[in-house]
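Q: Could you write out the predicted structure for this multi-component system? I'm mainly interested in how the pieces pack against one another.
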Amino acid sequence: EIVLTQSPANLSLSPGERATLSCRASQSVSDSLAWFQQRPGQAPRLLIYRASTRATGIPARFSGSGSGTDFTLTISSLEPEDFAVYYCQQRSDWPAFSFGPGTTVGVK
Amino acid sequence: EVQLVESGGGLVQPGGSLRLSCAASGFTFTSYWMGWARQVPGKGLQWVANIKTDGSEKYYADSVKGRFTISRDNAENSLSLQMNSLRVEDTAVYYCVREEWADCWGQGTLVTVSS
């Protein structure tokens, strides 16, 4: 089973600041990694797939990078609606698509 | 508009059964693998099961294998999850997911297993 770890667990930032979130896999997942955003009371929303491809309708301030075991989600300039929980998910270990524990981006 | 709408959640006693349904619309249902994920309130996400386009392949998380059954009705554009021998630890919000990189999620339905 591939285990994902996310850091930091919590991130306190102000609107307009840059957010950098990390996801590390216990073994290589190549580029089979996705990022999701979950706002309170809502279902998760796909942001990035295949490590760096933005999903339909996702603003350009969201970007993903990495391959193998180390991945990064960057939000270039935080908007008020971006304060949420972010999860990474590996889709290499078919079909056991494990998720990371999440990073909460909160208002400083 | 792509839409997934779950139903069937509720309160059930340990050892009981429940059947979740998901109505899909706005896309060609038969072209997509579909799946279920769950989330304990306030906690993280867990993949539960998924099913191939024609229903010929089904996969389950170890924690639900032998107790849950995923199925689909392509004529009705619907997905189901039959949950038997429910445990307290199965309490969660259950989401229907389109398995194209999980690019579409339903709003979720809450299943509470408690005596």
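A: Regarding packing and overall arrangement: The interface with chain A takes residues 44-47, 50, 59, 61, 95, 101-108 of chain B (CB under 8 Å).
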